[in-house]
Write a structure and sequence with these properties.
Length: 220
């Protein structure tokens, strides 16, 4: 799956697995869940920024030598899929303090699992730029595809969208890749499968509920 050119799976280091071990544990408290999730989110966002175009930019070092460097060549903004996507905003603002962040409110219907779009509010000039689309969970891919459609309707080019996912199911990656083959997907783990309730296995439960502390149970 990660051999797909549009999918960037973070290197599966022991360190990353140790972070996942904390957040996957159904008994993790909200403090441990948020702290360790944020460390993974930081890695995801840095990897997402690496997907943007760069231009050469030399600097002179303190010893008078030239460092042949790079800087981003494009304007970037972010769009968070409410609610879980908002969990990525704090880390993003730490990395990129001035970044503009649009919102798209999409909720899965509890019975049908189909996404429903309620609201969007995007930066006015989003059409010309590159977009980090913050959507931690890619299960069926329905919510991500609905959010991508909102961006396309606003004039964003498909190849300028980088989807930042905490975890993804193969089914979700396939759904996004089939519908929007030029969207880049950055993800920290690809799960085994979806279960009959369209939840990921082994999964992490309801990311939004666990991050914001709105559930009594980590299992979903
Ligand atoms: C969850 C999750 C994603 C979506 C993924 O959102 O945060 O947005 O489901 O599922 P899909 O790929 O099958 O569409 P939910 O609607 O539960 O809202 P939440 O963000 O408030 O938890």
């Amino acid at each position: 799956m990660s051999s797909q050119p549009n999918v960037h799976l973070l290197p599966q280091t022991r360190q990353l697995r140790a972070l996942h071990t904390v957040v996957r544990d159904r008994h993790a408290g909200i403090d441990a869940f948020v702290h360790h999730s944020r460390r993974i989110i930081r890695l995801l966002l840095e990897a997402g920024l690496d997907q943007l175009p760069f231009t050469e930019s030399d600097v002179t070092t303190p010893v008078g030598a030239t460092y042949r460097g790079l800087r981003h060549a494009v304007d970037v903004c972010a769009v968070a899929v409410v609610r879980a996507g908002e969990s990525m905003e704090a880390e993003l603002r730490d990395i990129h303090p001035g970044i503009r962040i649009g919102k798209i409110l999409i909720q899965r219907d509890k019975q049908t699992k189909l996404p429903h779009l309620y609201y969007s509010h995007l930066p006015h000039d989003i059409a010309g730029g590159h977009v980090l689309l913050l959507e931690p969970m890619l299960a069926t891919g329905g919510s991500a595809n609905a959010a991508i459609d909102v961006l396309l309707k606003a004039g964003v080019r498909e190849e300028h969208i980088v989807l930042i996912d905490f975890i993804a199911a193969p089914e979700g990656i396939r759904a996004v890749s089939d519908a929007h083959p030029h969207v880049k997907i950055v993800v920290s783990s690809i799960e085994e499968r979806l279960n009959d309730d369209a939840f990921m296995v082994p999964g992490i439960g309801d990311f939004g509920d666990r991050y914001f502390g709105t559930t009594d149970s980590g299992a979903r």
